[in-house]
Amino acid sequence: MSDEQQRNNVTRRRLMMGLPLVGAGVCGVAFWKMLSGMQTGAFNPHDINAPVTGRPVPDFTLVDQPPGTGFAAADLRTLKSPVLINFFASWCIPCIAEMQALLDLQKQVPIWGVAYKDKPENAAGLLKHAGNPYARIGSDREGRVAIDWGVSGVPESFLIAPGGLIVWHSAAGLDNEDVRTSLNAALTKVAR
Amino acid sequence: MRSLARLRCVLPLLAVLLVAAPMAALAVDDPAEMLPDPREEARAEAIGAQLRCLVCQNESIEDSSAGLARDLRKVVREHVAKGESDRQIIDWMVARYGNFIRLSPPITISTLLLWGMPLLALLVGVIAALRVFRRRSTPESAPLSEEERARLDEVRRDA
């Protein structure tokens, strides 16, 4: 066996040993990034329904949810300034967790709430306890309006530009720093 | 003895439960959800089996007992009862939830590598196999030189 052949064999053996290790390393780093992203909220596997962003709001009508008044697609289509739509429920812990952030945020942009699959008295009870950040509130008792919006769980928020265009969406709570940063960027873009 | 007799009473019930349990797991939560026409129901189940439950993400809406899955099952059945085609119903879902709701993604530029992977792997395998076979059929080393042949003969004689 010539020297060159022998050297080739050694290189091949090293490659066979090294490649799986490198592959495992790359997978490990990718998983670590994904899991740490899930912890900080930078990566959310449930944040999937991008299709609605960039589209006009779907047709819908929501009945009153005390203490607020309901609204319909026409109300959003005739908007003169942006509105944040927030799907929430009294049975949803992350929704309760984001209430304080919503109370702060409503000074910046009006928030219209949608009580998702919730008993009206329970939703009203939550708002009495945690405070009411919503300018208007509709009740989606059956969860059918949420399906037309592509909602896969609560909380979920949509920024509506004047004219009724959905320009931003998040399936994570607004108490998350990254989500609020991205919302602020969307808000300045709409204002321009 | 009495406990044995009691066991004998319970055993048939247990047997029935054992047989019934996997059947219940396959069906929808509530028989009231099902369409009265068994053919329409079968079609709704086939469509639902292709749609991802967005809460559990690795189950179809037919397999999941999440609230949203139940709502989507209901929507599928309403559309089936209206006489819409499978394609129309799946498009309706994709319009709301994107291609992610389809358990088998359509062939697009971003999924080309995914769908092409088996073919690609086969191609790489065939090329690798051909190279190995070709190397085996060629002689491993050069023919012996005069000197080497003489030395070999010498060794053979000694043996």
Provide a quick synopsis of the model:
The complex is a heterodimer of chains A (192) and B (159). With 192 residues, chain A is of the alpha/beta class.
Q: Could you characterize what this model shows?
A:
Chain A: Residues 51-188 form the Thioredoxin domain. Chain A: One of its GO terms (biological process) is cytochrome complex assembly. Chain A: InterPro entries: AhpC/TSA, Periplasmic_diS_OxRdtase_DsbE, Thioredoxin-like_sf, Thioredoxin_domain, Thioredoxin_ResA/DsbE_sf. Chain A: It comes from Acetobacter estunensis. Chain A: GO terms for molecular function: antioxidant activity; disulfide oxidoreductase activity. The complex is a heterodimer of chains A (192) and B (159). By secondary structure, chain A is an alpha/beta fold. Chain A has two domains: 1-42; 50-191, Glutaredoxin, CATH 3.40.30.10. Helices cover 46% and strands 17% of the residues of chain A. Chain A is built from six helices and six strands. Chain A has a six-stranded mixed sheet. In chain A, α4 links the parallel β3 and β4 (134-140). Chain A is elongated, with a radius of gyration of 24 Å. The model of chain B is unreliable at 22-27 (pLDDT under 50). With 159 residues, chain B is mainly α. In chain B, α2 packs across α3. Helix content of chain B is 64%, strand content 0%. Chain B folds into two domains: 1-106, Cytochrome C biogenesis protein (Helicase, Ruva Protein, domain 3), CATH 1.10.8; 107-159, no CATH class. The termini of chain B are far apart. Classes of the chains: A alpha/beta (192), B mainly alpha (159). The A-B interface holds A 1, 45-46, 48-52, 117, 142-144, 147-150, 152-153 and B 54-55, 57, 67-68, 71-72, 75, 94-98, 100, 141.
